[in-house]
Amino acid sequence: MPKTIRRIYFRRNRRISSRKNTRKLTKGVIHIQASFHNTIVTVTDVTGRVVSWSSAGTCRFRAKRRATPFAAQTTVVNAIRPVVDQGLKRAKVMIKGPGRGRDAALRTIRKNGIRLTCIRDVTPMPHNGCRPPKKRRV
């Protein structure tokens, strides 16, 4: 009579934990996109994987209030809070766009205890612009 094969359950006694809480992050990159109408903040690790993000629209700011420096400040706090709990100490900052929330966002990052190793403006600039339309013939 052949022996019966016992099934082995690997997941039975193991405690399930979320991946967000177990990841330790000491260095990161903070991308700030400040347009005339909104401010979007994305926090990534050094390799570029998104860890946390927030925007002025998700912080319940609507219409003209989305473009204010206060909205940018609130957005940065919401994006950085979970990452600071994971142990973020130093970060590079990449700023894109001409919006009014640029300076307020930088000040807020500094107030939350993150050392800024590099501040870089990555706003796209046209070298020669688009080709102009052809002359109008009447």
TrEMBL record:
Transmembrane segments: none annotated. Gene3D superfamilies: Ribosomal protein S11. Keywords: Chloroplast, Plastid, Ribonucleoprotein, Ribosomal protein, RNA-binding, rRNA-binding. Its main location: plastid. Pfam families: Ribosomal_S11. One of its GO terms (cellular component) is ribosome. It is found in: Plastid, Chloroplast. One of its GO terms (biological process) is translation. GO terms for molecular function: rRNA binding; structural constituent of ribosome. The keyword Cell membrane does not apply. The keyword Metal-binding does not apply. NCBIfam families: PRK05309.1. Belongs to the universal ribosomal protein uS11 family. Part of the 30S ribosomal subunit. This is Small ribosomal subunit protein uS11c. It comes from Rhododendron simsii.
